[in-house]
Design goal:
With 61 residues, the protein is of the alpha+beta class. It is built from one helix and two strands, in the order ββα.
Length: 61
Amino acid sequence: MVIEVTDHDRPVAHLVPIEPKTRLVIREAIRPFSEIAHRRYKPLNLPISSTDLLRQDRDIR
């Protein structure tokens, strides 16, 4: 069984079951999230706004 995930009627992901032979490895975090949760990063200095980038991306689809 495959589940299709959509956003505004557009497919964004397919969820498929793992095959029994596949080895799933779950790695524990090295550090707790609380150690990095406070970090702040400088905004990107792009020649175009993020809104315009998003609009361009959506126009392509």
